[in-house]
Amino acid sequence: MLTLKMIAEQTDKVIAGLEKKHFNNAKETIAQVLELNNKRRSTQGLLDNNLAEVNRISKSIGGLMKEGKKDEAEAAKKQVSEIKEKNKVLQAEMDQAAEDLQNLLYTIPNVPYDEVPEGAGAEDNLVVKMGGMETELPQNALPHWELAKKYNLIDFDLGVKITGAGFPVYTGQGARLQRALINFFLDEARNAGYMEVMPPTVVNAASGYGTGQLPDKEGQMYHCNLDDLYLIPTAEVPVTNIYRDVILDEKQLPIKNCAYTQCFRREAGSYGKDVRGLNRLHEFSKVELVRIDKPEHSKQSHQEMLDHVEGLLQKLELPYRILRLCGGDMSFTAAICYDFEVYSEAQKRWLEVSSVSNFDTYQANRLKCRYRDAEKKIQLCHTLNGSALALPRIVAALLENNQTPEGIRIPKALVPYTGFDMIK
Q: What are phi and psi of 230, to 5 degrees?
């Protein structure tokens, strides 16, 4: 969440940033934050003054009793009792103001960086780079859901039988392709200096609040009501929460973690061609990169993550483009975000396969993720993450873009992992 220091000292910049994200009632909400903070601070001041007065009067009571001034001592005791009763009211008011302030701050998104373009939605995102190989498909090329059926790679109907729509069953070479991609992505991350973590795939509410999924995306997460636990929508949540309530040493930064997990998303309201086949699932596999860094180094970390994801797509020989998201299409928590999309030649559309984000101090402030600098001062870290990569649409693009009359060709970089160079 935004720091109170930033809101108080850069009020106009914060409001302008929130308006760039199309956050409704930005001015009114920030004014309410400042009002609640002032109320909390002024009430704390009254409490401190009253406590000091109680201490002063309490110390005088013993002296008054020794001097035989019993009536004055009793009056002093009564005065202390009255002040303490007032303090109970003040404490309740301060606690309520603090709670209201915290709850309000949870509803305010991150402020985007200056280089984030203006815009309301996906149509306003800025294409910053295109790359990869042009694809020439045979006549009557098939979409991936037809290829999956033809080559017995994925059984969507069986997934519906076992669980429901959006939970496919991978079989045979389809399952091996999934495992090959996971291992390929993890090996590439390890070679780039990331330490692998295998976290839980269910988290508590505190973890959801820590990374900003709660309360913003509560309706999109699967909730285990009995235990009040949530199935993770991405490994970002458990991995970043490793550093919740932690003070790191500056020498430990940047921290680089990667993790493969299953991911679960309700995707409420999704329908039509966007959900066909692997385009949008409720459960899918993903390898995630997470970095914890110093503020002055986080932009370099972000660029390194972007280069890493681009390198993966190049090795997979897929046509891709990189977009800098506009304010209106960015996530609740991101300060800046780049999306990677691969082109599906059979579907004639771009498929998002990765988002790489810098959150500045927004998540770290929620998490209380801090570091001790060279001068022994405690500072908030910057957090970053990105998919490297999400498998479903990568699989869709690989199947569709590599189909030939003889079968589906496997990119050279993957052959050591699959054990075969062609799906027949």
A: -120, 135
Beta strand pairing call for 255-264 and 195-196: parallel
As a whole number of angstroms, the distance between CA 231 and CA 200 comes to: 9
CA distance linking residue 357 with residue 113, whole number of Å: 11
Q: Which residues neighbour 378 within 8 Å (Cβ) at sequence distance 6 or greater?
A: 247, 370, 371, 372
**Cα→Cα distances 42→221, 375, 394, Å:** 39, 32, 55
| Closest to 241 (Cα-Cα) out of 384, 369, 337 | 369
- Give CA 196 to chain center in angstroms: 18
**What is the C-alpha separation between 258 and 289, in angstroms, rounded?**
5
CA–CA distance from 328 to each of 79, 104, 217, 325, 389 (Å)? 57, 21, 16, 8, 24
First to last CA, the chain: 51
pLDDT digits (tens, 9 = 90+) for 379-395: 999 999 999 999 999 99
Q: What is the pLDDT of residues 288-344, one digit of tens each?
A: 999 999 999 999 999 999 999 999 999 999 999 999 999 999 999 999 999 999 999
**φ and ψ of 149, to 5 deg:** -70, -40
Q: Which residues pair with 204 in a beta bridge?
A: 229
* AA identity, residue 101: L
187 Cβ neighbours under 8 A, 6+ residues apart = none
Which runs of consecutive H residues, i.e. helices, occur in 232-274? 236-240
Instruction: Give the closest residue to 284 by CA, choosing from 174, 153, 178.
Output: 178
